[in-house]
Amino acid sequence: MWFFKKMCTSNAPLDGKTVVITGANSGIGKETARDFYGRGARVILACRNMKKADQAVKDIKNNPPSRIKENEYQSIAGQLAIYSLDLSSLESVRKCAKNLLAKEAAIHILVNNAGVSMYPYEKTEDGIEMTLQTNHLGHFLLTLLLLPKMQSSSPGCRIVNVSSITHIWGDIHFDDINLEKSYSPSKGYMQSKLANILFTKELARRLKNANIGGINVYSLHPGLIPTEITRHANSTIFFGAGFIYNFLTWLFCQNIEEGAQTTIYCSVDEKTASETGLYYSNCTVANPQEKANNDQYAKNLWDVSCKLLHLEPEEDFTTFLQTVSCQIM
Ligand SMILES: NC(=O)c1ccc[n+]([C@@H]2O[C@H](COP(=O)([O-])OP(=O)(O)OC[C@H]3O[C@@H](n4cnc5c(N)ncnc54)[C@H](OP(=O)(O)O)[C@@H]3O)[C@@H](O)[C@H]2O)c1
Fold first, then answer.
1. Ligand 1, residues 4, 21, 25, 28: which to mutate, most atoms within 8 A of Cβ?
2. pLDDT digits (tens, 9 = 90+) for 193-226
3. Is 158 helix (H, G, I), strand (E, B) or coil?
4. CB 229 near ligand 1, within 6 Å
């Protein structure tokens, strides 16, 4: 439907900029990577499946986004690189950050896009509920580890967290963060997507309080898009649920390129350059649910996330970042 299909109209170039996108081997992440590559960026696909990442690189190189003509694409395109990242392993997150810090001269944009949905109950090797770690905690750690590099790459840096409209039914279960007592796949997903918005808000606040300028933080709902995000729905909801979601979203909502537009808008558009800590939908600032606007909730989630990572949530943010960095020395 046309009213769900606002496109990012910015032509901002990204030559000379380095962008990291998690989960860029499929779906919204891959379309975001294609757009940034077409703007001249060095685009890093941080992925766990190397075979799929190789295929994504070939696809991106050969097929421009619809806004760019095929004969112009090769001359304006940037670079593509793949780094290994499995968000369900904190060790892998640390290794990926260490590699990025060692090999990349700068990081200007970080898109925390990877995600799982409707996952059966499982704990990661770190003892954390799978959806919470993949969608929130892994990105929380990755972001903190990359922040010093982004600081040295600023101004003009952006961190973009891909959330979901389903956060409106979510809550942060502080007394049972791993949902050991009452798990359901949707509860786990909604908790993680609310966490994406609260993390955005709290990170923006801490950066501001620490007088760290030039790094803005955004969260967003990308729309409802037929992608592989439904892959677990057949086993956890009912057989065919994934197919039905993808058929209905294909029929009535956005295609994948359209579904990447709000991520692109938050990452590059000049209109958002002075905004931070906000939530977006359909390339516009939107209102998340009440809990997502609650400062105490955001602070509590920050503290719980630190506890899960065995970190002291220092009030002095600069000291805190140094402590986090020690984890990969
Ligand atoms: N599609 C929608 O309707 C919709 C709606 C609202 C929000 N979203 C959000 O949009 C984001 C992108 O989803 P999508 O729709 O594009 O789905 P997708 O095609 O399934 O993409 C998800 C990506 O995340 C990666 N990923 C999953 N677990 C990972 C892990 N442990 N470590 C590293 N990467 C991992 C996947 O890699 P593999 O291929 O290796 O599994 C894949 O590249 C997600 O955050 C999702 O919650 C989507």
1. 28
2. 999 999 999 999 999 999 999 999 999 999 988 8
3. strand
4. yes
Q: Is the CB of 188 under 6 A from ligand 1?
A: no
What domains can be seen in the chain, in order of their start residue?
Answer: 2-326 (3.40.50.720)
Q: Which of 300, 124, 311, 267 is nearest to 199 (CA)?
A: 300
Which residue has its alpha carbon closest to ligand 1 atom 7? 164
What is the Cα 201 distance to its own chain's centre?
14
Q: How many CA atoms lie within 13 A of 154 on its CB side?
A: 20
Spatial contact of 22 and 85, defined as CB atoms under 8 Å apart: yes
Per-residue pLDDT reduced to its tens digit, 161-199? 999 999 999 999 999 999 999 999 999 999 999 999 999
The finding on whether 185 has its CB within 6 A of some atom of ligand 1 is no
Ligand 1 pocket, 228 CB below 6 A? yes
Mutation choice for ligand 1 from 20, 26, 253, CB with most ligand atoms inside 8 A: 26
Count how many Cα atoms sit within 13 Å of the Cα of residue 97 in the half-sphere of its side chain.
27
What positions carry a catalytic annotation?
189
Q: How does pLDDT run across 82-130, given as a tens digit for each residue?
A: 999 999 999 999 999 999 999 999 999 999 999 999 999 999 999 999 9
